[in-house]
## 1
Amino acid sequence: MTDFHPQVKQLLDGELTLADLPAALRPEGVEALRLLAAVDREPVALPSTLDARVLAAVRARAARPSLWRRFLAPREIRVRLRPWTLVPALAAAAALVLFLSSPARTPTASTVTVRFVLFAPDAQQVSLAGTFNQWDPAATPLVRTGSPGVWSATLILPAGQHQYAFVVDGARWVADPGAPAVDDGFGRRNSVLSL
Amino acid sequence: MRTFRAFLLLALVGGGTTLRAQDISTRLAGRVSPEVAALVQRLATSAAARGLPVDPLIQKAIEGGAKGVPADRIAAAVRALAGQLDVAAAALTRAGPTHPDTDAIAAGAFALNAGLNDTNVTTLARVSGPRHTEAATLRVAGTLAAMGVPAAQTVELVTQVIEAGGESADVLALPGQVSEGVSHGRGVTPAQAAAGLARAAAARANAPGQQKPKPPHP
């Protein structure tokens, strides 16, 4: 971008004429004026009806305020405080403060990344089914790791308790040998994960 | 206006009930037989009316279907779980003045399934007090029992940790600590590892300057 001499800038602003410039700056002034002239400076002709159309649109909007505008419109509200009405309000405020300051009874929702690993050297496919995927054996396949016979899957699970089992070759339900297990009610064991 | 409000309330309540029933049948569709789905629907409706959690019943039916279990065994397992939820709710109700929440009841049923009895559940709910959620305490206790820690020792360990001023994170860490004790010690059983942790917690509770929190429900 061209940076003109301050006096040339004054020329462009109309504060000086070309004749006011020192002789050394006149070529720069001429060049600046030439560049300025290159810009389309043709005046914009506005239609004569524009003012009337704008005002008509403004009047129409003012005459039919939308529900939202009516809601947002400033209005005068008078509040008359009666002492006895303050009692339930203060009680409600105190209850709210007590509620908010009491220790949380429900743990905050959070997630934990868990890696499931099974050593199944003879398996063709291994998957994971549990309370976190509606016990769907097709939902969470494990993949072979670099170590022979080792299968793994990494899941992000919500904090809490989950029960699960590995499904080997789509048919054999196997409890995780590295996790505690409980009776599943069907004569097998479910592994337990507490996060 | 009052009539309209009453109608709106009825519509919301009725709509919620219908939605729940539809939700259960949708979740079970194609996963269990129609007979099992109908049974779960009945048990869930009855459980919800008694303030019991419904989701464990649905999950158990889905689990049975996924495992290819015969319908009659799924029905038996869902009925047994409904019974455990009832026992857990009663045990929790004995522990305090307020009706237990569904999360705590589900955790209580899990603890029962893991080997604790209803008295253990009541004791642990009382010990939890306002500083710990009953559900989290019961889940930890159930997990310890599932690891092989005897029920009495499980209750003793959790109680000692809470009464020594342990925070929720300390309680949640117990299964991992027991597991660590078993894997690091030579021939250490889960019971022995839990006993060691309970002794350490008791020592902390009796240490000079240690304030022992009072149990909330004497």
Note: Strands of chain A lie at 111-119, 126-130, 140-141, 143-144, 150-158, 161-168, 172-174, 181-183, 189-194.
## 2
Amino acid sequence: MDARLIAQLGVIGFTFFMLLNSAAILVYMERKVAALVQQRYGPFLVGPKGLLQPLADIIKLMMKEELRPLAANKWLFYLAPVVSATAAFAAFSVVPFGAPTTFFGLLDEPINLAPADVNVGLLVIFAITSMGVYGIVLAGWSSNSKYSLIGALRASAQMISYELSYGMSFAAVILMAGSLSLGEIVNQQSGYWFHVIPKWYIFIQPLGFFIFLTAGVAETNRAPFDFPEAEQELVAGYHTEYSSMSFALFFLAEYVNMVTVSAVATDLFLGGWHGPFLPESLGWIWFLAKVFALLFFYIWMRWTLPRYRYDQLMEFGWKWLLPLAVVNLLVTAFLTIKINGW
Amino acid sequence: MDAILFWILAAGAVIASVLVIGQRNPMYSVLLLIASFGALSGLYVLLGSPFVAVIQIIIYAGAIMVLFLFVVMLLNVPTEEMPTGQQAKFLGGAGPRRFGAILSAFLAVQLFWAMRALSAQPMPGNETPATTVAAIGERLFREYSFAFEATSVLILVAMVGAVILARKEHQ
Amino acid sequence: MSLPEPTLNSYLMLSAVLFAIGTAGVFLRRNLITILLSIEVMLNAVNLTFVAVDRFRGLIDGQIIVFFVMTVAAAEAAVGLAIVIALFRHKETLTPDAFTSLKW
């Protein structure tokens, strides 16, 4: 049991713990930001300024009765939220959130601040996100109810359509950075041009950032692309029949997916943990700040924009976003060859 | 460590595949096949090919199996009934089915026999580095570029063909 | 006790077993979709052979071929499932024994 192994296990446990916490914080943030947008108070009764509201929500969810429709397939019904939540957590496992550190000199060599920073990291995220589709499909199918089935089919069709633009937008980043490992990509974004503008990829690829974020919002089934869970049309879509802890797992999966998309966007386009005024070892503070800015933007979008209709959503994904992503990739490839030589 | 992982993943892949062909409900077959693909992906990582492992998950488990799942759900494929009459005898009764199944067992035995002359040297361990994506990319786009372009035409043809074949007939 | 180290033989025998399982599935199953699934099992066994021999010999051409095999498998699954859908619309059943109109 050398110090490296303990440090590595510590990083894994810490990441898992922080993901759970971030889901709770997001519950609170969502309700407060919604209240801000709608000009009312959010939760303010439970705890100071309503800060214990997520705790109340979780206790309420755990105390509810666990229902299952009689005709539902027992194995698949309980497997679906497990698959969703597992895929959501597993996708974060290759995202680094800080510079390689030695924990104030306790270790001999620095370790990466990520549960596992493999050298095909970006593809791993893509792979595990496509496994998240199964949670939704199984939930819709096994509930044996028409609302669930329609919601599930729509959600999965939407997710696999937007996966293409998602992949193409980060293919352009890979082209520029020359590596699939997220730690490498962040390292390529250190430094400044003219001592003022940081070398983040968002300044070179604004279109790519826009496409990535749009596809990410569509992937996580959030507004304005949340037609599969549209309350007005489909009761609650694929998680209609779920209650108590299974619903809590779906809920958790959605928030952790949001965090993963924001974290990957931060690493790819916003320079990860690089930022002015702070030394490299405190870079995780900048990382947190950027991720929270993106999450605030996510929630702000939900309560501001109206929802897309399903056929408009699919048309947008295939006829507008995908060609834009392809053009982005082609232009990036062309410019990379021109600048770096053949 | 590698040995334990190999045997666990190999056992997982074989058991999942046997269950795939043994299940009567096609939904379970598809899910078990996904599990088998996961085990194979782990084996590819053990063999030092992380790229192949990840694209196995992306393409097979993430795209092809979703296609199968959609078709199973949309067609509401019925569970096969228990075989009756002639079919209820051992392996489906005398006929091409039983003959074919016994032949595939013979295939396995023959392959084992052919392979026992092969080298029993252990696989290269951790001293040989894993294949990088850059190396695969170089080889793919230089020597195999024609095959790459031909594959893209193949996918286009398959897309068009699938859409046309599955369309409802117009009155 | 220590398990035997995996050799090239172990990987090749594993893929032989998977291939035989897939073949048996194609012969024994009476549901078109499960037959297609068994074909996928066979293709995977072949992929495993390519990658294992690759590692043993230190080449990477096998992995490129695996890339192409996966692409062809995707195309074949798509067209095969489209055919299955068309057949199902015609006859409301998925048993291969029902489609005998080309037999003499």
Note: Chain A has twelve helices and two strands.
